[in-house]
Amino acid sequence: MTSTVTSAAVTVADIPHLDPVPAFAPLAERSPQGIAQIRLPSGHTALHMTRYADVHKVLTDPASGRTETNVEGGPSFLPTVMPKELLLNLDAPFHARVRGFVAADYSAAGVERLRPVLDRVLDEGIERLRSAASPDLFTDLVDRIPVTVNCHFLGVPLADVPYFRPSARIVQIASHENVPDLVEHFYRVYGYVQDLVTGTRAAVPGGLIDRFRSDRDRAEPPLDDAELTGIFFGSLLGADQNVVSVLTKSLYTLLAAPALWRRLAEEPGIAPRLAEELIRLIPLGTISAFPRIAGRDLDTSQGVVPAGSVVYPDAFAANRDPEAFPDPLTIDPDRVPAKRHLQFGYGMHHCMGAALARMEIVAVLTRLAREFPDLALAIEPAEVPWDDGTVLRRPTSLPVRW
Predict the structure, then answer these.
(1) Where in the chain are the domains?
(2) What pTM did the predictor assign?
(3) What is the third-level CATH fold of 12-401?
(4) Which of 14, 72, 240, 399 could in theory staple to 5 by disulfide, Cβ–Cβ 3.0 to 4.6 A?
């Protein structure tokens, strides 16, 4: 019996393994204010925000910060602390200084200059698919695109990819099973980026690393090596592993529901809005945000969040709030949402690589639909193997035919 979805109306529940098992445990007892609670892997209790308006309020509140969670013994989904200089760990006013330094290069206009590189890498991937005896959409194309484009963007030598990338994957899986091994891989990647920033390793001239090192005094005060390392460490992981995850799951979803793939093949112009719909519905890993500490009392639809509370703004749940997205579980290429989804975050911690991710995902969907209108999975969707981690969760193979 086939598990492939062939009807025109497709929901996320129709796609095997698409939704993860949450990385937290719901608690039966509510807070004294009547707010739902969860238990984090760190053992801390957090207030669970799931409605769009409430999650949006937490994400945009400058007093609800990340810094206090990234400490030894702090409330976290991760098994260890991260360097404090990473953008996702910075709060106001420090975040604005660093974010302003990178904003232009990571804007939609800034990443557009990477379009020729993206097109070339896509050409190479399509040629590999066509010549493969057993074509695999993941290994022959998807897994190679973000890392190649990002290396060009940052000025990271492509010859170094085998050195840092296996460790980057382990870092994003963020398994609690072997923390010393995780820490070793973390600092292998972090040390590699640090070497590029300090000049111990040679960066490719003209890339962001080379430019930012020489232009660091645009910030006031000038960015130091640790801050630059924080910027590029986040980019080396996020603009590669995160994009691979969302892109792979997007293609898996479309191929597991051939009605959606046929629609895209017939109308490649729908790729931008179809990509947004898929991004809205597909979480990166088993979490959709990092905890915050409320810096002041916040009024929410569930009750008052007291200052000092640990809060989990669940963007995954908010993106499926029927008040914000009617019929939220349906994958609707024609949806014209009244709200902007929260998959890339919102406010201060909005993902700096969002424009690059969108450009790559839309380009791949558009090109594949034109080149392979009859593309299909060569195995049942339920048989597709997966990586399953805290931040990284995705298929590891997509055998295809056409």
Answers:
(1) 12-401
(2) 0.95
(3) Cytochrome p450 (1.10.630)
(4) 14
